[in-house]
Design brief:
- This protein is mainly alpha-helical.
- Helix 1 packs across helix 2, helix 5 crosses helix 9 and helix 7 runs antiparallel to helix 8.
- The chain is built from 9 helices and no strands.
- The chain is 77% helix and 0% strand.
Amino acid sequence: MESRKTQYTKSVIRESFLSLLREKPVEKITVTELCAKADINRSTFYTHYLDVYDLKEKLEQGFFEEMSAVFHRTEWDSFMLDMALALQKNDHFCQVLFGEYGDREFLRRCVSGWMAPMQMHLETPQENWRFLFVANGAAAVTGDWILRGMKEPPEEIAHALEHLCDSVNAAEL
């Protein structure tokens, strides 16, 4: 368990990094600039991270694991709503990470990773195609919702995704 001081320091680093990532791509963010914004010294940063890319990777991994927990604990009936609520809980992080200077492909990779266990049970190419269409479509709709500022309530996006998935599943190939 991390100390409160370590948790605070990582939180300040995270928020400073996200603030900078909102303004420019990760390759233009320096450790010096990040430390100045976070009001910490470089040795404190290097105690926790190798560089800004390591920080970004650890933030993405933490998000992936948090969302994976939603995928593994929820029932299908509440899955879309639970996912939308978890994304909304991380709205600032999502808007920056999937925004102009973030990694727009990260959401698609997350969805693919979260759904991979389900994909293993598909028996025909047609089932796999349907699955890929639904998963990538859900990622695109979710990404659009995030980038537009999550203005619609989670219940609305969840309902729309459920309806779209049901429509695709009802279609014949």
